[in-house]
Design goal:
homodimer; alpha/beta; about 325 residues; 8-stranded mixed sheet
Chain lengths: ~325, ~325
């Protein structure tokens, strides 16, 4: 990939501005305790979040939770950043398929690669989650963990979204970034728990969300320790290790965090079990779903969508009183200005 | 298990005293910066540790490492607590085998269970690491994650070591506990990376070492998300998911931490690859092996031991100049008074 100095510099500025944003949000939280979520309208979701945070952090309150147990988990695709017209990791995989195609002549006739190379995304994605994961894993293996990290960093610094023309990490929901900072300012430890690849997220989420690599849970392929010329490397194998989606999310949470979250944030049926697992614990709990209903500022989709379908989880939210955010009505802004 | 009030209370006091110890060590570190490791003799290992910590934390130093990258990983068995005459988790497994034997008549003739039930530990352990892992996994499954956590907590609060008569969490190496606190006081994030079961460690390591569950990496069995009477549970399956030992340690580190440690601490050949992986990174690095050479205050064993064998890793340490701690010569004390 051709990384010219100006793209590096641009990536650097974006990193800085994400950091500046977080610092600003933090400073704002402290300065104006009465309005820690300024990018949220004064509607029910904002009130529900603040009420929850205040009761679990007030010492002596029956709902008080000690800081080490203030675990909050966030889905990534569709919850922290956009996911249309397909998961951004698929955009990355498509670029990888193109780059690797000369080394894989068999892809010309092998689905879903053949369709991807023809530019027919619809057919390529028709195989559903498993086909998606197959493409992702096949294009993410055969190299070392270190090499893969560099490829992801290069991609995030240069690739742009086909519709908005923005860099992908400029398609982060600003009210959610503000919420992450607000929770951390109140002693929460924030985790990503995503169906996306764990090694695809780690290279950029620390700058983007203030979430370090060790607080990222995701899908993974197997890796193998090897000595190459006397130097140890971790080689990424073309074999799925774990899919961190649906029933996998509580399993991933248990494996990586080892503690049940007290708050969980998602946007699709892939998050339903994470929210159920979170809400089934003792004491004060909070569950939130982001509803994509803003066709003007973002995309509008829910029950019928192939990507980020919100159907069963929405029904459960309505029955159980989980908070549902309307992006249209509850957020003042969506993407960075 | 019969948990009488006095054992609960005793467990509570031990928890408090571990906390008090940590607080004391921290306060001491700040008050007497010239001697942050008071339980260590003024020999080479202590000097090497302090030199390393000072150079990576001094801003402007060419070896400076920002706090978010100050990752330190510690083996558990034989590095943070004792492991003789066998891994303490095996003691736990033995108690579980006895408790579960009535439900498993087939164990009477099936190795390694038959030998364990006859009290013939030597034969039971003759199968090596894999046999050990099999016993551990078989006795650790068939229940929910929550039930298992309670069983471990009960055991740690009541079981005693056959030789010393101490509770197992009173067999923690005090100089290492002091070292953990010293590193954290210097902005390090401390992790356990152990061949032991991740769910066996998590219920007690936070009190014992100040290391929260999300900073524990270990071997695991598979778990499955299930709904039972409308309540979500995680069921522990009798199937090994991951063995976090030898070549597995760098894999476990990559999976759970996603960042290469800058310092790693172990005591056996099971830690060799973790130390190699740590030392192969750029910039200042630190690797340490604890050598068990104190038959009077603890145990003396190395190249020929079945448990915690230190042979190849020792040779590599000698060649590469990794720090090797003599428990006899370098530590003022070993267990709590």
């Amino acid at each position: 990939m051709d990384i010219r100095p100006w793209t590096r510099l641009r990536g650097f500025h974006r990193g800085i501005s994400a950091f500046a944003f977080t610092a600003l949000a933090l400073a704002t939280s402290f300065a104006r305790a009465q309005d820690p979520l300024q990018l949220w309208n004064d509607t029910a979701p904002k009130k529900a979040i603040i009420t929850f945070v205040e009761k679990v952090t007030r010492e002596g309150s029956p709902d008080f939770v000690p800081p080490n147990e203030r675990i909050a988990t966030f889905d990534n695709d569709g919850t922290l950043w956009a996911e249309q017209p397909m998961y951004f990791q698929m955009m990355f995989a498509l670029d990888r398929v193109k780059a690797l195609a000369p080394q894989h002549p068999e892809w010309k006739t092998k689905e879903p690669f053949a369709s991807l190379l023809r530019g027919d995304l619809k057919t390529a994605l028709a195989g559903g989650d498993h086909a998606i994961m197959e493409i992702v894993m096949a294009t993410h293996s055969g190299i070392t963990a270190e090499e893969f990290e560099k490829i992801v960093k290069d991609w995030i610094a240069t690739a742009k979204h086909p519709k908005t023309g923005r860099y992908y990490n400029e398609m982060i929901y600003q009210p959610m970034a503000e919420l992450l900072a607000y929770l951390r300012a109140n002693g929460f430890k924030t985790f990503i728990v995503s169906g996306g690849g764990i090694e695809f997220m780690r290279p950029w989420v620390e700058k983007a969300y203030g979430i370090p690599p060790e607080q990222v849970v995701g899908s993974s392929i197997e890796t193998k320790f090897e000595m190459r010329d006397g130097k140890p490397v971790l080689v990424r194998l073309p074999k799925i290790d774990f899919i961190d989606d649906k029933e996998g999310k509580p399993v991933g949470i248990n494996s990586h965090i080892g503690r049940r979250p007290i708050a969980a944030f998602g946007n699709s049926d892939g998050d339903q079990q994470m929210l159920e697992w979170t809400m089934a614990g003792k004491g004060a709990r909070f569950a939130l779903l982001v509803h994509h209903d803003d066709a003007e500022r973002e995309w509008a989709y829910d029950r019928k969508s192939n990507v980020g379908r919100l159907d069963k989880a929405w029904d459960e939210a309505l029955v159980k009183g989980w908070t549902v955010v309307s992006m249209k009505d509850d957020w003042k802004t969506i993407f960075p200005k």
